[in-house]
């Protein structure tokens, strides 16, 4: 036997992302914008084309918008506006019992919508290509992961060693895809978690064949490799939670039916045939979700008998629930079934070097359309922290990263608690009458929808106090009602999730993403949403000081603004110099700390160059003055007056200072005189130079 | 000498478009959607990358939206919201004298914006590629055009013979581009009309070299080949109009300045240094327009001395006008100069076989940002008429086509009249005081802006009565004020251009594009603009019957709707059967006559399948019921209530019938009982089967 000694190639990167689903791609989006040396690998040789997760919540759309591609999702998706509740009447026949808005009005610029996962992944891939050289390496999977604990605290070290195997195209293609010629119609379960995980099998076979291998040394690794996460297994983290698994069937069809609400999101409780959820989709498709009660996991193995699950069994169950309405179809786009427990990993990170995100650390039922959204939110929370840390712009190596686990694990636990509550209401037998305490009343279901709509929108996510979330001593408690609007004729303040609030911005929940209102550009009269001024941009994800400058035409207030600029922002002792690396222009788009001004004086009376200190609209020899930094809470010519100060609860004369993190989360609120406290906060967050 | 006899290749097409600028590309957009066998040639070997025309008016954006790409233009462009007027004060120094909105509020979903022509052409090219196999053939130019008059009335004939020459890449590249390495900075005049036309020269040289030639037989030819139009010259049409030519200089720079309104559209009249127009653009650029008074065309040749025109001469003139404000720049993106008369061709068509569009038939000054927009509107007017005629769906061969010349020539003449009036106000010396009757007062200029904002938006375009525009006998005269809104608390009706109006839709100008209001989908609760329901779609550009069904929950009105469907729309004698070719499903997306229903009953009380005859939401075995055809004038959950009936002046109980052409222009208005009159109108327009 001849032995060939091949040298295994070795290389280094800053961040290795394992898994190119929504969580991995979202993490990669930040890396792409920040110029971080990143690799992203996925064991699958193909990307997703049809089906899979579908619901896009408001906050996910807001995040897409911050990267610049929400418009693509908004244009292609089906928007869900209304939820119709159907319930058996006295005669046992289903009837519409209620209509509610799917997304509570005025909580976001967006409403919930539905678009197949493959398109969403496409937007991320296009975004990565536009902003970086990072490419998803498909058919590549890790086979070992070692962390050198001696090096984890060394900022410059690459303490993680990962061996990667490169599969052949043949190996990377799942058997089911080969036989189904690209569509999953042949075996809708091929990516379902009802299919056994094939990672170990792929590795073994590739090794036997002598496939190629490489060694990668990384500063950070992010495991986004799904419910069977190989990365999580290497860390030894066991998922914890509910042992009872339900099996859900999913069918995407173009329905032919006389059921009147087929283009609405519906929850249909039948008298004794179970519950059906209808999700209208793009291109005339409708998704039917149904719990397959007749299929139960094997007690010993915990697995369901896959052979019993067919599109027909799902469809027939739906037909029975919809009766006496007729339902048939000529076109099925996709189908699958899931077996879903409600579980959370005990930790999302190891040594703040290896992180887990998405299904790798939380699984739950698909009913509320949360899965993809919460997974993406994990990546969104982690990505900017990683980027600033790799760029050595964080206060310490772990100042930012240490908040990932507590912030996101708390959300995962809330999600499971929500799912428990919602599942019972959803899958329980409908109440026969008021006396029927065992059954689920429509009133209870509706109340649950109302109560949880804000939760499922993703907008109520509130991070607890930490180095990154500062609660002022005089904050209103989390459950105190926000103050009423002073203007009886104006719309009521937008829905505010419970969270502590400062009297300086009494309707801004601290730890939550800042609500968005339209403001008007001082120089161009362009009305734009506040969120549009807070993009997820590079080269370093910026913390932003929102200077609500108040009525700058009143002399004392103009003096306060000037004093804030002089004593807190500018000069050798100022915040901008303190937290901006040498060589980067202060308050420029490249700086990790930037200032955005929103004043409340009548826009026509204000002159940008006269009423605002130069640092608020910084000058460069290439671009002249920056006209995008000073905005007015003022009427627009074509889009009304959004009254941002009132909406945020900021005093129109005196203003306030609000710091938002790179992820638009409110981190600090104070007065223009609180420069010292602001510096103390920033010192815990950003590196002082 | 050896002679090689090469056979000249011959081929046929339905439509040949000469020139791939905005007018030609817009015409091609309709061809692409309609599957018309089309060729489009352009003598230039490269497309435009920087500079050129820039203003995008509301109507152009609405048209882009009808093809599905307004979002791209809207996202990339700079939006112009405000116009600032600057005028010399008593001390002779310029000061801001007024601010007005650039686009009058509420006339459109869009506002005027600015984007370079190259991007706009890109959107058209992408659209063509998405919907057809039509590709622009660059470096191809016609050398002869013959029309066989004996065949022009034969629907099946290809009476036009055009010889095309194919240039080499070298020939198709203008000298100036070769030397300026792709950017036009070296010689900003290379595509300006100050450069002599090189068409004849190109042809001669190519012929001498023995370049390749082909013979094309076409049913229709559209000449969109610019101010020097070769096509127009072949038809022998002489441009008519103003002999006096002005020379305008244009400079696109990133300005460094203390002038406060540099991000606004400005008209700056200096005391004695002339007038400057400032147009803020995308990417921090600003366009400066200035009339170069010191450069006058040579009396004998009519041409200006090109060598005297440089970026510096334009810039220095701008600096003088802006003084005492400082202006400098480090980056110039583009510059040019135009010599512009105000002229219109005597006819836009020959035998309704050869058509002219865009600069080929009208030239005027660039001040109001009209050029590209009016040119595109020519193509938009012509394209659907050509498509339906080629498809033999028009009542006769010329029923539609014969309206192109009168409709668009009238608009060109209005444009020239507007330009005359506006030019004097714009280029005149500012009035020193009220007694100064020679000078232009700011009040006069502002009044002109107000008066003409609707004109320049493109929304006031009103086509005169014709086979395609039917005025009811009891119409309100064009200049009668529209009726007041009956609801004191609702916003006033949107700005309505003067045009005749029917009492059945008292705020709908006949002959004008229908105003757009949001309506709510009956089946899905989705709010959409009426215009979004009227796309410029194929396979045959459809005439649409908008059935304002009124309050369908009232029994007598429900009966009227049923009677309209039974007696006018449906059955063997109905309109849909009469005007839909055999083999095409009635009221389907493929039919040239379609029905869209908008009712005014409370949406929650209405059931699509119960309250509306089946023909209003047609069924197909592939897609089931069509849920996109019935809409409600009702409140939406997230976007308010736009009150379409009130805005259009339609009675909320009794409704009305409005027919819009494929270009969204209101063609016929009547009652639900006027099916006979409706048929008479349609017989003059569409082919009866």
TrEMBL record, chains A, B:
Stretches assigned to the FAD-binding domain: 12-153, 208-418
Record keywords: FAD, Flavoprotein, Oxidoreductase
Domain Phenol hydroxylase-like C-terminal dimerisation, residue spans: 463-686
Region listing for Disordered, in residue ranges: 172-202, 474-505
The family this protein is said to belong to: Belongs to the PheA/TfdB FAD monooxygenase family.
KW Flavoprotein (keyword) present: yes
Pfam families: FAD_binding_3, Phe_hydrox_dim
Comp. bias regions, Pro residues: 479-501
CDD domains (UniProt xref): PHOX_C
Official protein name in the record: FAD binding domain-containing protein
Keyword flag Flavoprotein: yes
């Amino acid at each position: 036997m001849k032995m060939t000694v091949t040298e295994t190639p070795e290389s280094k990167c800053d961040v290795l992302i394992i898994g190119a689903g929504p969580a991995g791609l979202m993490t990669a989006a930040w890396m792409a914008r920040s110029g971080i040396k990143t690799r992203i690998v996925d064991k699958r040789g193909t990307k997703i084309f049809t089906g899979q997760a579908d619901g896009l919540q408001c906050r996910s759309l807001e995040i897409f918008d911050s990267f610049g591609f929400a418009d693509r999702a908004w244009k292609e998706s089906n928007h869900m506006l209304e939820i119709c509740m159907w319930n058996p009447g006295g005669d046992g026949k289903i009837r519409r019992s209620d209509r509610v808005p799917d997304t509570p009005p005025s909580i976001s610029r967006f409403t919930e919508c539905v678009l197949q996962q493959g398109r969403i992944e496409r937007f991320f891939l296009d975004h990565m290509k536009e902003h970086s050289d990072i490419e998803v390496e498909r058919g590549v999977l890790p086979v070992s992961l070692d962390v050198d604990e001696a090096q984890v605290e060394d900022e410059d070290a690459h303490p993680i060693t990962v061996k990667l195997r490169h599969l052949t195209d043949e190996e990377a293609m799942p058997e089911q895809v080969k036989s189904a010629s690209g569509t999953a119609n042949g075996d809708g379960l091929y990516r379902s978690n009802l299919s056994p995980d094939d990672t170990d099998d792929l590795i073994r076979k590739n090794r036997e064949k002598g496939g190629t291998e490489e060694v990668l040394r990384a500063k950070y690794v992010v495991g986004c490799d799904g419910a069977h996460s190989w990365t999580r297994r290497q860390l030894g983290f066991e998922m914890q939670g509910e042992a009872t698994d339900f099996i859900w069937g999913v069918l995407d069809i173009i329905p032919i039916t006389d059921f009147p609400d087929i283009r609405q999101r519906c929850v249909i409780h039948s008298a004794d045939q179970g519950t059906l959820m209808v999700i209208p989709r793009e291109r005339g498709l409708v998704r039917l979700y149904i719990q397959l009660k007749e299929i139960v996991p094997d007690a010993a193995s915990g697995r369901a008998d896959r052979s019993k699950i067919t599109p027909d069994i799902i469809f027939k169950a739906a037909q029975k629930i919809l009766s006496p309405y007729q339902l048939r179809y000529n076109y099925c786009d996709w189908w699958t079934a899931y077996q879903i427990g409600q579980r959370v990993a005990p930790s999302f990170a190891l040594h703040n070097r290896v992180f887990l995100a998405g299904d790798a650390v939380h699984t739950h039922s698909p009913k509320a359309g949360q899965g993809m959204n919460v997974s993406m939110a994990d990546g969104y929370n982690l990505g900017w922290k990683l980027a600033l840390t790799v760029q050595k712009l964080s206060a310490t190596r772990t100042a930012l990263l240490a908040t990932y686990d507590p912030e996101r694990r708390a959300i995962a636990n809330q999600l499971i608690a929500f799912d428990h509550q919602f599942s019972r209401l959803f899958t329980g037998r409908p109440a026969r009458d008021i006396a029927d305490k065992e059954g689920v009343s429509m009133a209870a279901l509706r109340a649950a929808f109302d109560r949880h709509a804000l939760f499922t929108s993703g907008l109520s996510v509130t991070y607890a106090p930490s180095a990154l979330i500062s609660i002022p001593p005089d904050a209103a408690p989390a459950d105190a009602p926000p103050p009423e609007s002073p203007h009886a004729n104006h719309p009521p303040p937008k829905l505010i999730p419970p969270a502590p609030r400062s009297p300086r911005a009494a309707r801004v929940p601290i730890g939550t993403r800042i609500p968005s209102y339209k403001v008007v550009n001082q120089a161009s009269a362009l009305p734009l949403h506040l969120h549009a001024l807070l993009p997820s941009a590079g080269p370093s994800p910026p913390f932003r000081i929102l200077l609500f400058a108040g009525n700058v035409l009143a002399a004392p207030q103009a003096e306060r603004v000037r004093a804030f600029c002089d004593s807190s922002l500018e000069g050798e002792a100022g915040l901008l110099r303190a937290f901006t690396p040498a060589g980067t222009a202060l308050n420029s788009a490249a700086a990790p700390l930037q200032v955005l001004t929103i004043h409340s004086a009548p826009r026509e009376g204000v002159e940008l160059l006269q009423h605002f200190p130069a640092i608020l609209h910084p000058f460069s020899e290439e671009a002249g003055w920056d006209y995008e930094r000073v905005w007015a809470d003022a009427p627009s010519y074509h889009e009304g007056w959004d009254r941002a100060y009132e909406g945020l609860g900021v005093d129109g004369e005196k203003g306030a200072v609000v710091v938002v993190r790179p992820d638009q989360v409110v981190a600090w609120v104070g007065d223009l005189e609180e420069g010292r406290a602001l510096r103390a906060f920033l010192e815990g967050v950003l590196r002082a130079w």
